[in-house]
Design goal:
two-stranded antiparallel ribbon, 11 helices, 72% helix, mainly alpha
C-alpha cells in the first residue's frame, strides 16, 4: 500500500519544466517558450517605457510614472557614483538602466498565472520566464561581460593598460605574477556566476510556487501567495544584484587603470600630499 501511495503521489505531483521547450521552428532555428515570452516582455517593456517617457513632466506625477522615475534615477546615481569620473559612468547609464528594467520586468511578468502551466502547446508550457532559462541568463551575462571588457579596454587606454590592473605589483615577482593570473582566470568565471545566480533564484522560486500550489489544491492561491510575494522581492533583488555586479566589474577596471596611470606619471594622491605637508610643518 505504501508503494501504491508513493506511485500515486509521484504521478499526481506538480509538473515543473526546468528545460525550455521548442514551440515552433523558423527555418532551422528553434523558437523556445522562453524566447517567445522574452519577446513578449520586450514589447511590453518598450511600450510601457515609451508611454512613461511621453508622460514625464517637470512637475512630478504619481502612480507608475513616479516609481519608474525613482528606479531609473536610482540606477543612474548608482552607475555614476561607481566611477571616479562621473562623465565616464554617464556614458554607460542607458545600458545598465535597460539591463535592470529588462531583468526586473521579466522576473515579475514570469509570476503571472498564464506563464508556465497556464497555457500549453502539447505537453509543454507555451510561455516560460526568460530569466528562468539558463540559455537566457547566459546570453545576458555574455553580452554584459563583453560590454564590460570593451568598455574597460577603451576607458583604460588599450588592452595593455587593462591587463595591468590585474597585477598589484611587479609582474616579474612570481607571487604577484601568480596572483595576477588567478585574478584574470577569476574574471573569466564571472559570466558563469552571473548567469547561474539569476537562473537558480528564478527557477527555485518557480518550483516553490508550483509545489505549494499543488499542496493547496483548491486553496492554491492562498498557499502560494506568500511565496509569490517573496518572489516579487527576490526578482527585484536579483535584478539589482546582476546590475550592480556588472557596474562594479566595469568601474573597478576603469578606476584601477586611472590609478595606475597617476602612479606612472608620478602624481601623488591628495591625501598623501596633505599628510606629508603636515608632518613637515610639525
Amino acid at each position: 500500500m505504501t508503494l501504491s501511495l508513493l506511485n500515486f503521489l509521484a504521478d499526481s505531483g506538480p509538473s515543473v519544466h526546468i528545460a525550455p521547450g521548442s514551440v515552433w521552428h523558423i527555418g532551422g532555428l528553434a523558437i523556445t517558450n522562453s524566447i517567445l515570452y522574452g519577446w513578449i516582455c520586450i514589447i511590453l517593456i518598450c511600450a510601457l517605457l515609451i508611454w512613461v517617457a511621453r508622460q514625464v513632466t517637470v512637475k512630478p506625477k504619481g502612480g507608475i510614472i513616479q516609481y519608474i522615475e525613482v528606479a531609473v534615477g536610482f540606477i543612474t546615481d548608482l552607475v555614476e557614483g561607481a566611477f571616479d569620473d562621473e562623465k565616464v559612468g554617464r556614458k554607460y547609464v542607458p545600458y545598465f538602466v535597460t539591463l535592470f528594467c529588462f531583468i526586473l520586468f521579466n522576473n515579475w511578468l514570469g509570476l503571472l498565472p498564464i506563464v508556465g502551466e497556464g497555457f500549453k502547446s502539447g505537453n509543454l508550457p507555451l510561455l516560460r520566464p526568460f530569466t528562468g532559462d539558463l540559455n537566457g541568463t547566459l546570453a545576458m551575462a555574455v553580452v554584459t561581460m563583453l560590454l564590460v571588457y570593451v568598455g574597460s579596454i577603451r576607458e583604460s587606454g588599450g588592452i595593455v593598460h587593462y591587463v595591468k590592473h590585474f597585477f598589484v605589483g611587479n609582474p616579474l615577482n612570481p607571487i604577484y605574477l601568480l596572483v595576477g593570473i588567478l585574478e584574470m582566470v577569476t574574471d573569466l568565471t564571472r559570466v558563469i556566476s552571473l548567469s547561474l545566480r539569476l537562473f537558480l533564484n528564478v527557477t527555485i522560486g518557480e518550483i516553490l510556487i508550483a509545489v505549494f500550489s499543488y499542496l493547496g489544491h483548491i486553496a492554491a492561491p492562498l498557499t502560494a501567495l506568500p511565496f509569490t510575494l517573496l518572489e516579487v522581492a527576490v526578482g527585484a533583488l536579483q535584478a539589482y544584484i546582476f546590475t550592480i555586479l556588472a557596474v562594479m566589474y566595469l568601474a573597478i577596471a576603469v578606476n584601477s587603470a586611472s590609478e595606475h596611470d597617476d602612479l606612472t606619471k608620478g602624481e601623488v594622491p591628495e591625501t598623501i600630499g596633505t599628510t606629508s605637508e603636515g608632518a613637515v610643518n610639525g
